Each structure stands twice: as structure tokens, then as C-alpha cells.
Structure prediction request, 105 residues.
Amino acid sequence: MFRILAVLFVVLALAVLVGDFYLSLGGDGVVRFGALGEWWARIHRDSLLLLQPAVERHISPEIWDPGIQTLLEWPAVLEFAIAAVVFWLLHLLARWRRRRRLTRR
Prediction:
């Protein structure tokens, strides 16, 4: 399960990276990495606009700012790459624990 999620996040990171390069072609030649919130707004703006009131009303206003709002402002490629590494490490940890459990028997 963790391996599948890691691969999924690697694919997402690569897709966003290619998209960032593509969107930078028409500019001054400097690659600008788009924030997660920008990418989300390009894909489905309405769900992004509903996220803030839903989190503030049903969970807690303190979670939105600075928590989720900060994550939405970070580069999407960085966040997806970090998520891929975390899930890959969880996969390796689960594999190590499984092997350790089998060798004890």
C-alpha cells in the first residue's frame, strides 16, 4: 500500500514538474514552481474555495491558518516529492518489520 502511494506521489511530482516547465516556456526563461493552491485552483477552483470554510467550521480555525494555508502556498512539486519519500520510507519500515517478525519464528 505504501509503495503504491509512493509511486503515485512520484508520478504527481513529475507531472507537476513538467507542467511548471511548460508554463515557464513563454516567460523570461526562469522556471517558477507553482504552489499547491495554484495547481488545485487550475484543476478545480470550487473545491478549493469550499475547503477553508469547511475546515474552519467543522474542524478548527487554527488548523487553517497557518497550517493548511501554508501548505497551499508551498511548491506542489516539493510537497509531492516529500510525500513520496515519506511513503517510501514507510514502505521500507513495514518491510523491515515484516522480515524481522518472520525471522523471530
User: Anything to note?
Assistant: The helical segments are 2-24, 36-58, 61-73, 76-104. Residues 2-104 form one domain. The chain is about 85% helix and 0% strand. The chain has a mean pLDDT of 90.
